[in-house]
Amino acid sequence: MQDVDDPRARLDAYGAAYVRFAVTHPVHHRVMFSAELNSATAREGEKATNSDAFELLVETASAVVGPDGDALIAAVASWSLTHGLAMLILDKRIPAEYVATPEDVAKLAQQVIAQWRGPLS
C-alpha cells in the first residue's frame, strides 16, 4: 500500500485490509491478540514484526495529522476503530447479511472508516 500516495487514503486502506485479514483468518487474528500470548512468550521475530507494523501505522498517521497533530493518538484511534469492527464481525455482532462475503466486509469497513472521517469527525 506504499504506492497509495495520499496518506489518509493509505491509512484507510490499512484499516480495511486489517478488517479483511481478521475476517479471512479469524483464528490467526484471535491468537495474535490473545492474552495468553503476551510479550514474554512471543518470539523475537514476532516482536519485531509487531513493532514494525505499529511504527508503519504511526508513520502514516503522522503524515495525516501533520506536525501539530499527535501521531500516536491518531494511530491508536485508527487501529481501535478497525480492530473493534473486526471483533464485532468475528463475534457475530454485525448482521450476517452485511458481512456475507469478503467484498461485503471490505465495503462495510470502508463505509465505517468514511463515516468516522466524515460526519463523526
Query: How large a portion of the residues is in β-strands, by DSSP E?
Result: under 5%
Low-pLDDT ranges: none
- Radius of gyration based on Cα positions: 15 Å
Order of helices and strands: HHHHH
Overall body shape: globular
Round the mean pLDDT to the nearest integer and report it: 87
| Class from secondary-structure proportions | mainly alpha
Helical percentage:
55-70%
Total strands: the figure is 0
Query: Helix count?
Result: 5
Distance between the termini: 24 Å
State the major sheet.
none
Return the domain count: 1
Key phrases:
0% strand; single chain; mainly alpha; 121 residues
Explain what the structure shows:
- This protein has 121 residues and is mainly α.
- It has one domain (7-117).
- It is 69% helix and 0% strand.
- The protein has helices at residues 7-24, 26-32, 44-65, 71-90, 102-117.
Blueprint of the fold:
Elements (H helix, E strand, L loop, with lengths): L6 H18 L1 H7 L11 H22 L5 H20 L11 H16 L4
Helix pairs in contact: 1-2, 1-3, 1-4, 1-5, 3-4
Summed up, what is this model?
69% of the residues lie in helices and 0% in strands. It is mainly α and 121 residues long.
